[in-house]
Amino acid sequence: MPVGRINKVEVSWVFFSSFLILCFCSEYSADLVVKAALHGHASSVRERLIREVMSVKHINYQRANAIVNDMSHANSSGLPKFKVPFHAGATLGFVACWASLPLVFDYSTALWFNTAFVTTEVPPAEDLETWLEVGAWTWNWNEPFMGTLMFQFLALEFMRNQAINVGLKPYTEWVQSRRATRLADLFPCYSRTIVRDFAKSNAQFGEDYTGTSKEEIQ
Asked: Least C-beta-crowded within 10 Å: which of 25, 107, 114, 167?
């Protein structure tokens, strides 16, 4: 293994092990909270916002935590409508995954589909005695559709990568950025950067957070 790679792994391990051995983010030093937050550690992102609220409002941890919970609720409001494409895609993918099996290999399903949508000639019974023979028949109309669909997915993935290369945001990043700006506008008294980072890390969760140590939730 190259020396440069060893050093990189060692540095990463030293950094993460230094805060993972602590039980709660509230025990992190300010410097460690910032570093962990910049590395995308979600709890540290939240902890940084809590400390920002404490600094701006001059209040204790419990009250600042309650305010951050309110910010989390504000951030998650209206979120379900932005999740519709993801749920629709997951549902469509699940249905297509399992529907493709009987459509290709099950004789009864394939015969129904052929009668309703394809109307191609049905082979003699001796050529449809096994599920593989059924698949060989149905593949005549399944191959063009499935092949074209796979090429479309490949082309869309290529298009997405090129859009990222020129600085355009895919849907997920666009939603996160839009909602981050919205939350920062709702709470202008706090650091815009800290609020935006919290909104992006919190966007897919939006749950309450009652504290980071036993002392803090008492």
From this structure: 167
Which amino acid would we find at residue 200?
K
The C-alpha atoms of residue 47 and residue 37 are separated, in whole angstroms, by 8
End-to-end CA distance of the chain: 50
Rounded CA-CA distance 55/35 in Å is 19
Q: Residue 38: which residues within 8 A CB-CB, separation 6 or more?
A: none
Separation CA 154–CA 136 (nearest Å): 25
Q: Locate 213 and state its tokens.
A: 């140590």
CA distances to 95, 100, 120, 145, 154 from 148, rounded to whole Å, are 18, 15, 20, 5, 10
Q: Distance between CA atoms of 182 and 82, rounded to whole angstroms?
A: 14
Distance CA(42)–CA(21), nearest Å, equals 16
Q: Measure Cα distances from 52 to 11, 55, 179, 181, 200 in Å.
A: 28, 5, 20, 18, 17
